[in-house]
Amino acid sequence: MNALEARLEYPFGDTLPAPGTTLEVAPGVRWIRMALPFALDHINLWLLRDEIDGRAGWTVVDCCISREEAQAQWEEVFATQLEGLPILRVIVTHMHPDHIGLAWWLCERWNAPLWISATDFNAARLASQSTTGFGGAAAADFFASHGLTDPESLEKIRARASYYPGMVPKVPPRFRRLQDGDRVAIGGRTWRCISGYGHAPEHISLFCEELQVLISGDMLLPRISTNVSVYDVEPESDPLRLFLASIDRFDALPEGTLALPSHGKPFRGIHERVKQLHDHHDERLAEVVEACSAGAKSAADVLPVLFKRALDLHQTTFAMGESVAHLHALWHEGRLARARDADGVWRFQSVK
Question: Superfamily assignment of 5-286 in CATH?
Fold first, then answer.
């Protein structure tokens, strides 16, 4: 545990739910942990005891990517953890593959409706039929315009034409819209929707005042900083500003709130974690300004400033998006100016 983690409280210590089982973290709230085939090797999913239209059952929050191993883990959960009751509803916090990938299967398997923000529903529908923001020629061209010039890396990115559809082969055809401020009755308790931006188009976190529990999704993680990237479909965006403004909304929640993150362990100390994330990004932004004061820099030039470790290609694509996001935050503030060089690469320099 690093020094920042030590300032947070982990009420369950190192206890994790075993594959195919659940761990109760609050009355009527159960934690599922499923494996992912990435460096970030797991996702947390949540089962909430529920009753809809007089029918007892469960609401699922988030789904895992679409793959046989995850389906098998879900089948174990169905067989041993549901007390013989059905899945009544599938809530998805946002459109990233590890969250929505198996929504189609869960909804079909249980004839259950999908609840999600309209923005992320439509983004997922589009991405499952294309390569928006995750691979293919458009992504490779975008990264090249920000200084990623290694031919082998660019060719691999171009070849990732089925990256998103490979993990999200389809999306349910219908949905129920979630919006900021909506109040969702789950198991006789009220959960308030809190929208967040910068990580996904319209991420929905859920807060239950009665339980003092926040399902934070990817907006508030205890150990790592949430990926905040610029993508080829919105090439001049400023997601870092949106993300930092979004997490400030958690400061209005009670200090003792138990956060249920999508990665890492449930924790208390949400106000401290918000401050840590602000400090982290302030430090990275200061380093980027210093680097750009010494001369014009591309996003690829800034990678070693922001990331001190070696990156594989999968990590590099996310890191490039984050690098552009930090440069854009400073550019939109007027602290950096940008210009395209003779090779078509965007370079950013400190404004004197």
Answer: Ribonuclease Z/Hydroxyacylglutathione hydrolase-like (3.60.15.10)
